[in-house]
Design goal:
The chain is an alpha+beta fold. Helices cover 33% and strands 23% of the residues. It has 22 helices and 30 strands. The radius of gyration is 38 Å and the shape is flat.
Length: 699
């Protein structure tokens, strides 16, 4: 009995404790729900909502002529809230889901309508708050998608569009390395994108997002709480046509020589504005890509192109003159004999030795004249700032290495000076070498190249740039005139004559060939060469300077043969397309002198070409168009003023002008042949109505 009572007592005690615990839990729940409810609801909201940064649209990068080099376009990730307020009722969702599935299937083409239907219904059953519909959707596509069933209800229809900005280059790989890129995973910034990120990036905005089932975050409001501020635009100095020309010519040159890599830089003489930078590296047989900016970071021995600086120092110190005689062929120094690659050309003038690029001659002249005062030679190089960074607007400039006897332990009093004379025992980039030649073309004014001329925000300039002057005058006018004559002689009489010379305009420049080190293996491994040509044109009134450097060609490796053709191709095309560089002599048409034949068409265009060549001709007074089928026989240009409702005279015109007048007259055209219009089915001056067909024949 006592045992039974003891057991019951324990049971009652346990039951009582459970009841008391249950009552305590209920009281606590009530306290949390009703007394502290507001506090904990706010806490829950703070855990499920969060402010996110919104990237601003990055600013555009433009070329010198206004072409778009880099821009940001919006792309959207589309998701669907399957239990959004507007589609909470099943009857609305069920009545529209099949139509939505058909629209999505037809638009994207990645699933059938049935598959889309099953996909949407399953997500509805699971009450998905963030069902992925499609990634990388353009703004134009988004506008169409917003008209689809359910999605036309906007946010209430469940459509969630998250914007991301995508950076695109409209001209693909054109100037890609100069434009650069911005990448959070890359510490070293690249190109204009990296250097001007503070301007281009803009200011980030902020938007409140809510976490939904599945861990996805969706915007709480349709508009951002703090709108992002778009980045500023960069106006570069790059000319899109010259860039295209430089890249194509360099690629062809590399393929022709089967070389490993190369670079081309085109620079405007007076302003220092870089018009084109091309860099290519062979990634596999016959395939070249722009992986490294050799133009500004490719430090190597410049070779014979450096002889300009050596001769300039000698002339400036009046140690030689252009008619000073010097031996060529070989020049022995302790432990080494400096030889001319093409053998001796005998005893010649300094000018001739430069034109034929004699290594022995310049090594002898520099070594004998500066042997006892070696720092005097290097002082010139330091005065010209060849040992200093130019402070470029884009990152990656390699630091030049110009030795001097005082501070370089590797200076050898017997060997360093004569080898520096023809471009060894130093490290210079192609852009550094070009800038020095540009100073000669620019009447001695040495300026740093620039890649950006202006920064704009909302179309208004906020900062403008001009080239920094490195050295106001690198040498006297007397020395300048002599070295310019020597540079012209290289092309007309010397090592560049066979390849670079063009009788239509003058080019001044210098060939260069240098044996370069093979990575960490040095000069004693397989011989590798750098072939270069650097100069400017037209020589009498320099407008552009240019350097072409090609590394490790197979077969021929001399600068004139490897880099010369690339220089000539680019220079010829630039000269042909720039009327301002023509040096035509003004003429007066007298007696029975015949004007050059021209197609009929716009008077303005024809006058511009004739005036560029200094040719005078007879024009119809103030007529926008002219007709002259027989200009060779001296028939004056006849007036052709388009009149509404009257068939225009398109005889003698090219197809472009003819189609313009026919289209403006409201006619349709049927064209046969090519060249100039020789006949038209509706006679000039006839009354016409819109929509008539006119046949024109060209021959």
């Amino acid at each position: 009995m006592n045992i039974r009572a003891n057991i019951l007592l324990r049971v009652y005690l346990a039951f009582g404790l459970i009841v008391l615990f249950a009552i305590a839990v209920l009281l606590r729940l009530g306290d949390v729900q009703f007394i502290q409810g507001a506090k904990w609801r706010a806490k829950a909201d703070s855990l499920s909502t969060k402010e996110f940064e919104i990237d601003a649209a990055r600013g555009n990068i433009y070329s010198n002529d206004g072409s778009l080099l880099a821009t940001s376009v919006p792309e959207y990730e589309l998701r669907m809230d399957m239990i959004a307020g507007g589609i909470a009722k099943d009857d609305l969702f069920d009545s529209k889901v099949d139509s939505l599935a058909m629209k999505l299937s037809a638009f994207f083409g990645n699933k059938s309508a049935k598959d889309y239907g099953r996909y949407l219904r399953k997500a509805r059953e699971q009450k998905s708050r963030s069902l992925l519909i499609k990634k990388n959707v353009t703004y134009q596509d988004l506008k169409v998608i917003k008209t689809f069933p359910l999605f036309n209800l906007g946010k209430h229809g469940g459509l969630i569009a998250t914007q991301k900005n995508k950076r695109i280059l409209p001209f693909k790989d054109l100037a890609a390395r100069t434009i650069g890129y911005a990448n959070e995973n890359v510490k070293n910034v690249v190109g204009l994108e990296g250097a001007y990120g503070n301007y281009i990036n803009g200011e980030k905005g902020r938007q409140l997002m809510q976490r939904v089932s599945g861990g996805f975050w969706v915007p709480v409001n349709s508009d951002a709480e703090i709108a992002p501020k778009d980045g500023a635009d960069i106006i570069s100095t790059i000319d899109i046509n010259m860039q295209d020309l430089a890249q194509n010519a360099l690629r062809k040159g590399l393929e022709r020589s089967k070389a490993h890599h190369g670079a081309v830089i085109i620079m405007e003489v007076a302003t220092g504005e870089v018009r084109a930078v091309a860099n290519y590296t062979r990634v596999e047989e016959g395939i070249y890509k722009e992986n490294f900016n050799y133009a500004i970071a490719g430090n190597q021995d410049p070779g014979s192109t450096f002889k300009l600086a050596s001769y300039m120092a000698l002339l400036e110190d009046k140690l030689v003159d252009t008619n000073t005689m010097v031996n060529t062929g070989e020049y022995p120094i302790p432990g080494h004999t400096i030889k001319d690659s093409h053998g001796s050309i005998g005893r010649v003038t300094v000018k001739k030795a430069f034109e034929q690029s004699s290594n022995a001659a310049i090594a002898y002249l520099v070594n004998t004249n500066y042997r006892d005062r070696q720092s005097k030679f290097t002082d010139h190089l330091y005065e010209w700032k060849l040992n200093e960074l130019m402070g470029l607007q884009i990152p990656g400039e390699a630091r030049p290495v110009i030795k001097n006897p005082e501070t370089f332990k590797s200076w050898n009093k017997n060997m360093t000076l004569p080898q520096m004379a023809y471009g060894y025992e130093m490290q210079l980039t192609p852009l550094k070498m070009l800038s020095f030649y540009n100073a000669v073309a620019n009447n001695g004014k040495y300026i740093a190249p620039i890649f950006v001329k202006e920064i704009r925000r909302l179309g208004n300039p906020i900062e403008q740039f001009k080239a920094k002057v490195i050295n106001e005058k690198i040498c006297s006018d007397v020395t300048l005139s002599k070295v310019r004559a020597m540079l012209e002689g290289v092309v007309t009489e010397g090592s560049g004559r066979q390849i670079v010379y063009n009788p239509l305009y003058k080019i001044a420049g210098k060939t260069g060939t240098a044996q370069v080190a093979d990575a960490n293996l040095g000069y004693k491994a397989k011989k590798q060469y750098q072939a270069s040509f650097v100069g400017y044109f037209p020589a009498e009134r320099p407008k552009y300077s240019m350097i072409v450097v090609i590394n490790d060609p197979i077969g021929e490796y001399y600068g004139a043969l490897v880099s010369g053709p690339v220089f000539r191709e680019i220079a010829d095309r630039i000269y042909a397309s720039d009327v301002q560089m023509y040096t035509a002599v003004k003429q007066n048409m007298v007696g029975n002198t015949i004007a050059p034949e021209a197609k009929a068409g716009q008077s303005k265009a024809t006058k511009m070409v004739y005036n560029a060549f200094g040719i005078k001709a007879l024009y119809a007074a103030k007529s926008p168009y002219f007709n002259a089928l027989d200009t060779v026989n001296g028939i004056a240009y006849q007036e052709s003023t388009p009149t509404k409702g009257v068939m225009p005279n398109v005889g003698g015109m090219g197809l472009k002008d003819a189609m313009y007048l026919i289209g403006n007259a409201g006619l349709k055209a049927k064209v046969r042949g090519k060249g100039k219009v020789t006949s038209q089915s509706i006679q000039p001056g006839s009354r016409i109505g819109k929509g008539l067909m006119v046949e024109i024949e060209l021959n």
